[in-house]
Amino acid sequence: MNALQKLDLSGCSQLQELPSSIGQLTALEELYLSGCSDLKKLPSSIGQLIALQKLELNLCSKLKELPPSIGQLNALQKLDLERCSKFKELFSSIGQLNALQKLYLHGSLELKELPSSIGKLNALQGLYLSGWSHLKELPSFIGKLNALQQLSLLGCSELKELPSSIGQLNALEKLYLEGCYESKALSLSIGELNALQRLYLSGCSDLKEVPSSIGQLNALQ
What we know:
The protein is mainly β. The chain has no helices and nine strands. Strands 1-2-3-4-5-6-7-8-9 form a nine-stranded parallel sheet, with no helix packed on it. The relative contact order is 0.10.
């Protein structure tokens, strides 16, 4: 079984746990657990999957956290925790995922904040936080994500402002802020986003002004 490259357990809704022996699958590149709604935790041996590139946990509605060993997945490019509605914590070890390009956290309703180690994800291209109804502000370390191309905050209805560090995202091409009802203004630094091509603000019903710096977005299409 050391040759196994893909393991798809999607929709196995009564699966409650994985055996610790899964860590022996050192050639495994893709692990799909979407819709495993009874899965409550992952074994710490998951960190031994040194070839793993994709880990999908979409709709694992009883999953509350990932083991700290997740930081050992040096080849991981995609981590999908979309609609893990009971998910409460991301360990700081997530900042060790040097190859991570896509992080999906749509609808992870119990997750209160992002660990500061997120700012170390130098390869991260897409960060998807849609549906965090309790999110009131983005941490300033978001500006350290030099490779970030897409940032989705769609439906973050209590988001009041963007940090000035948002202007440091030199690679950002798409910024989704639809339905951010509490946002009253955009950061002045938004004009520093030289690569920005798409800016979505529909449904921002409390938005009172657009900063004059928006005129600097010459790449906007």
